[in-house]
Amino acid sequence: MSPLKSIYHWLNVRLGVDELVEKRLTGYLLPRSINAWYSLGSVLLVIFGIQVVTGILLLIYYVPDAEKAFKSVTYIMNDVHFGWLIRMCHAVGSNMMVAVLLLHMLSALFMGSHKSPRELNWVTGFILFNLVLGISLTGYLLPWSQLSFWATTVATNSAGAIPVIGQYLVEFLRGGKLVGPHTLGRFFAVHVVLLPLVIGALIGAHLFLLERIGVSTPPFGQKETKSTWQGDEFRHESHPGGIPFFPNYLLQDVTSILIYLAIFFCVVFFSPYIFFPPTAFVPADPFKTPAHIKPEWYFLANYQTLKVFPSELLGLMVQGAAMTFLALIPFIDRGKERHPLKRPLFLACFIGGIILFIGMTIWGHYS
Ligand code: HEM
User: What is the pLDDT of residue 91?
Assistant: First the structure.
């Protein structure tokens, strides 16, 4: 036996590698009609991995102190070997993660994957989406630039419109009356420890749920199996006669991941400052309010909503209602039909929602 084969045999006796490969890879069957949209979850796993690795590397030189934070980031960009690359990957990656998350959510909605019995997949996913927005918001403050400082001032300010607890909440978030060194300390702890741990745990829960209930059959394309789920007892949705995860679907996953990486590195190398307005290169100055301060692109729709309503509280209530509606959508949209063309009301709301989001984002950008 060759040395490699004997190592494999040694491991096989102890871990049951053959059985694992058969159960989890070659014998793990997916619907024949599965499409590329189902690989966005794997793309998200890769993005999360890249964010964790680049984040750890940035921590080697970043200093979470209001006096030193901006200088430490400048040092990373100018003096540390490949520091600029690591920082750009982390900053561009956070924006790309939100974009891919939105696509993953839209594809789940379009194909009706959120429907019974996958309500929990949706709900864990929706919480994940909000946590990713939270980790982006807390990360925004860390470079301690004019942009960081004033964007955080505006974002935390809007919590003040909530009746009764509003002012207390603002001070709790900021660690004082104004954004300052205490805000940086708490945002840093939340950004590098709390949220990565919670997001990691929730991704685990999201994948566990997927593994228990099984991948859904897309509502279009070849139908090799019919769902056997009746709604009153647990049934794993299996796909006899489907395609194996390894090597067939893994190839699709790898293709999507490579396409993602190609786009990601194009932005990092050819247009790295696309997400950085000029105020991102000026150190924070609490006494100088910049003329234009805008949140990141994915918060522009929320920002504009707050502006169009006569009171900030009304704007916040509308946003809260929209988010609650989205979170609970599997419990509201309960029909069994999953084909988008056979759900005209859904399709109208789906297209209308996308147009509204894009429209408000563009309006927020130019307002
Ligand atoms: C860090 C964030 C996330 C990661 C890493 C992740 C990962 C995954 C993976 C690997 C799958 C299986 C393959 C696929 O269908 O793509 C999946 C499925 C699913 N995800 Fe996510 N996801 C995330 C966020 C979300 C969000 C924000 C939502 C919606 C609010 C969501 C809803 C779903 C649903 C409903 C499924 C089941 C798809 C089906 O079986 O048809 N996920 N996710």
Answer: 98
142: closest CA among 264, 51, 59, 86? 59
Instruction: Determine the Cα–Cα distance for residues 298 and 361; give it in Å rounded to an integer.
Output: 8
| Neighbour count for residue 224 (Cβ, 10 Å) | 15
Pocket test for ligand 1, best of 30, 101, 104 (most atoms within 8 A of CB): 104
Helix runs in 16-115, H state only: 17-21, 40-59, 69-78, 83-110
**pTM check: above 0.85:** yes
All residue ranges of the chain with pLDDT < 50 are none
Q: Cα-Cα-Cα-Cα dihedral of 174, 176, 182, 186, to 10°?
A: -40
Whether the bond into 247 is cis, omega within 30 of 0: yes
User: Ligand 1 centre from 65 Cα, in Å?
Assistant: 36
User: Does the CB atom of residue 57 touch ligand 1 within 6 A?
Assistant: no
Determine the distance separating the centroid of ligand 1 and the alpha carbon of 266, expressed in angstroms. Answer: 26
N-to-C CA span, the chain: 71
Measure the CA–CA gap between 4 and 40, rounded to whole angstroms.
Answer: 35
* Distance in angstroms (rounded) separating the CA atoms of residues 252 and 128: 24
Q: Is the peptide bond before 196 cis (omega within 30 degrees of 0)?
A: no
Q: Which domains does the chain have, with CATH numbers?
A: 36-220+236-366 (1.20.810.10)
Contact (Cβ atoms closer than 8 angstroms) between residue 139 and residue 191: yes
pLDDT at 221: 81
Residue 70: helix, strand or coil by DSSP? helix
Read off the tokens for 177: 């009356």
| d(C-alpha 339, C-alpha 347), whole Å | 10
Q: Provide the β-strand partners of residue 30.
A: 243
